[in-house]
Each structure stands twice: as structure tokens, then as C-alpha cells.
Design goal:
Elements lengths: L2 E5 L4 H11 L3 E7 H4 L2 H13 L5 E7 L4 H14 L3 E4 L5 H14 L3 E5 L4 E6 L7 E2 L6 H6 L4 E3 L12 H13 L4 H12 L12 E5 L1 E3 L5 E3 L2 H9 L3 E7 L2 E6 L2 H7 L4 H14 L4 E9 L10 E10 L2 E8 L5 H14 L5 E6 L5 H9 L3 E3 L1 H5 L3 H6 L9
Parallel strand pairs: 1-2, 1-4, 2-3, 4-5, 16-17, 17-18
Antiparallel strand pairs: 5-6, 6-7, 8-14, 9-13, 10-11, 12-13, 14-15, 15-16
Helix pairs in contact: 4-5, 7-11
Length: 396
């Protein structure tokens, strides 16, 4: 096979896997005319293959994928120009698949498909190279966005340094569980105690000092979380803790710890990240993954943050972490991201430090989103539940 003929699909994964797996000299896309003339989209596909290390020559032939006769005519022209070809019928519209079957039959062409649920290629006819062939591709998180025309941007966390903190994440999370009920108020206190501290270089200083009791927002009162501070000092996340004379003084261990202790949700996110890594089943794990939908870093462009994202083979996993009750809007957003950048078999999960009500669970079930809740966490099942996400859901 020198040439691969692809039936263009709105699901990005269907358009790229076979080219990377079989490395043809040329890939010909039978696609809607609007795609064939879209230079920006074609450039993004080429960028994806460059990222994957695939030297791919891409050709786009435009037609209506809703008209089987037009698709068949387009296929016949492609086959005439590329007689040593094979047809991938993993994607495409019903009309395109019907036309491909007709042309493959009349011209005795090799044809094969890919099952995302089984992560295998299968021979349809005359394609022994694809017979019961396990997919050996291992995607990284960035690839999932690139193939869909998006891009991965740097988020709130430098993932490159996270392993340096693995020794403190579990003790930190245990402290969170111990003080969970007062966590939001405690973080508010830490924010106010350290908000005005700036070093000579313009960076936030590590020292913090405040009254034991101070005013919060809207006339509320914030009391120093002394027990929490003592626990944090015991594991080295803060130093030089001094509570006397109505004042609290301490220093954060470093700038990264300072960020985590000033953000309500970070503790759950980094715990989920660490447990995903330590399952050993994921090829790539990223926390605070910012997806730029258009991949152009425009000031007013659409972007979303995914708390934790992982990949297993060609399966993307989208995870949202909530230290509070899960709202319907959060479930809807997660489902949209999964379907746009993951496709039919991608997994999505909500990890919540609450029990989760019946209404939320019902909506999550409707959207095919797994719920990992406080009971799973307290029972020590978090890592096991995360590992179970590495296998595809049945395509809907």
C-alpha cells in the first residue's frame, strides 16, 4: 500500500490513526468541499503529523459526503490516480461508507477498519496487513487537542516539577480530608494573610503575617485555622509558625506550595494527578490542561481548563475535580470537552470531595460521566477508580 484513502470524519481520531499506524507515502482524504479548500484546517492536520513525527503527504479531494454517487465518483478518480491504494472505512458518513463498499467491491480494493473499543484494526477485504492488528500508537495529551485543530496551553501548574512534590502530596491530601469542612474558609484566611507580601524582585514573598481574627468578605469574620497550620508545619509545607500576641506568622516552603495553599481546589487536583501517574496505566498525564479550541492563542479565543487529563493508548480521559458540590454546568462542560476532543469512546469522570446527590448522579449517568466521590476517596479506592478509566466505554 503506497496510498491510503481516508473517508473524512468529524471525529478527529478517525482521520489520523491509520496514517500514523501504516505510514503510507500519501494519504488522500475524501472530504466535504469546505474542508478541501480550508487551508487553515489542512495546515493544522499537517502540524499534528509533524508533532507525531510522521512525514505525511496529504491530499484533499472535495465532494458531498451526503451523496453516495458523488463519493463513489470521487473514489474512482482517486483510485485511478493511485492504483496501489487501500481504503480505511473507520469513519465517514453513511453515504460515504456505502459508496466505499460499492467501489471496493467493483474494483477489488483492499479495505480495513479500526475498532476504538477494542483498539484494533480489522481486515474487511484484501488487507492482510490490518488483520486483527492491535493499535500500537500511544497518544500524549497534546496530540488529542492538535488532531482536533486545538492546542494545549500552559496552565496554572508547571507539570515538569510535580514529581518533586510527590512526597508531600499524600500527607497534604490527608490534612485536607481532616479539615475538609473548614477548608474554604481556611484558604480564604491564607489568601488574606499573604496577599500583600511582595519580594524585592516583584515575586510574591514566602512570608505571611496576619491577626488571629480578621474581617472577611461581606462582613464575615476569618479566624486563623491554627490546627490546620500546625498540621501543615508538621509536614514542612509551612515553616517558622508563630502564633502569639493575637498575631500569626509563618513562611511558605516555596512559591509552588504558596500557590496550592492559596487555592481551594488545587489539593484535589494534584492528588488525582499523582494517583493517575502512579497507576502506571496511563501514557501521559497533565494537570491544569488549558485547551485553546482554535489553536491560535487569540485574545478572545475560546479556551477551557481541564483539571486532569490522561491518555491510555489512543484513549483520552477527561477528569474534573471539585471540592464542592458538582453543578450541572460542570457536567455539561466536561461532556462537551470529551466529545469534541475525545470522541465516542473517550472517558470522562468527576472527582468530588462530597457525597454527590441523586440528581447529580442521574445527570452524570445521562452524559456517560463516571462519578468518583468522597466515599471512594475515604475507602482508599481513588487510585483503583482512576485506573478503571483507562478502558474505552462502548461507542454510542
Amino acid at each position: 500500500m503506497h496510498t491510503l484513502i481516508e473517508l473524512y470524519d468529524e471525529r478527529p481520531m478517525e482521520n489520523v490513526l491509520s496514517t500514523e499506524m501504516f505510514r503510507p507515502e500519501e494519504t488522500v482524504f475524501i472530504c466535504p468541499t469546505r474542508i478541501a479548500v480550508d487551508r487553515e484546517l489542512r495546515a493544522k492536520l499537517k502540524e499534528y503529523f509533524r508533532h507525531r513525527g510522521v512525514d505525511a503527504k496529504l491530499t484533499f479531494l472535495g465532494t458531498s459526503l451526503l451523496d453516495a454517487e458523488k463519493v463513489a465518483d470521487c473514489l474512482r478518480r482517486a483510485v485511478a490516480q493511485h492504483p496501489d491504494c487501500a481504503v480505511d472505512i473507520s469513519g465517514g458518513t453513511d453515504a460515504a461508507l456505502f459508496a466505499a463498499g460499492m467501489v471496493c467491491s467493483e474494483q477489488d480494493l483492499p479495505a480495513f477498519t479500526f475498532s476504538r473499543r477494542q483498539s484494533k484494526f480489522f481486515e474487511i477485504r484484501n488487507a492482510p496487513f490490518a488483520r486483527d492488528l492491535p493499535c500500537s500508537i500511544h497518544l500524549d495529551v497534546e496530540s488529542c487537542f492538535l488532531m482536533a485543530g486545538g492546542a494545549l496551553r500552559e496552565g496554572r501548574v508547571d507539570n515538569a516539577i510535580l514529581k518533586d512534590y510527590f512526597d508531600v502530596i499524600d500527607p497534604f491530601f490527608d490534612i485536607y480530608l481532616k479539615h475538609r469542612r473548614g477548608w474554604t474558609q481556611a484558604v480564604s484566611y491564607l489568601q488574606r494573610a499573604s496577599q500583600a507580601q511582595q519580594g524585592e524582585t516583584g515575586e510574591c514573598a514566602l512570608s505571611a503575617e496576619a491577626d488571629v481574627r480578621m474581617k472577611g468578605e461581606h462582613g464575615s469574620v476569618l479566624d486563623a485555622p491554627e490546627a490546620l497550620l500546625q498540621d501543615l508545619a508538621a509536614i514542612g509545607m509551612i515553616r517558622d509558625l508563630d502564633v502569639r500576641g493575637g498575631r500569626v506568622r509563618f513562611a511558605f516552603r516555596d512559591a509552588q506550595i504558596r500557590k496550592w495553599l492559596r487555592d481551594v481546589g488545587s489539593v484535589l487536583e494534584i492528588k488525582v494527578y499523582k494517583d493517575c501517574v502512579e497507576t502506571g496505566v496511563f501514557d501521559d498525564v497533565v494537570t491544569s490542561a488549558i485547551v485553546d479550541w482554535a489553536g491560535e492563542q487569540q485574545q478572545n479565543g475560546v479556551s477551557n481548563e481541564i483539571d486532569v487529563m490522561a491518555t491510555h493508548g489512543v484513549l483520552p480521559v477527561f477528569i474534573s475535580c471539585k471540592t464542592c458540590d458538582v453543578r450541572t454546568e460542570a457536567l455539561n462542560e466536561l461532556a462537551v470537552l470529551r466529545d469534541r476532543f475525545g470522541g465516542l469512546t473517550a472517558r470522562a469522570a468527576i472527582v468530588t470531595a462530597e457525597s454527590g446527590g441523586a440528581a447529580m448522579r442521574k445527570r452524570a449517568s445521562e452524559l456517560d460521566i463516571d462519578v468518583i466521590d468522597l466515599h471512594d476517596i475515604q475507602d482508599g479506592a481513588l487510585k483503583e477508580r482512576l485506573a478503571s478509566l483507562a478502558w474505552a466505554r462502548d461507542a454510542r
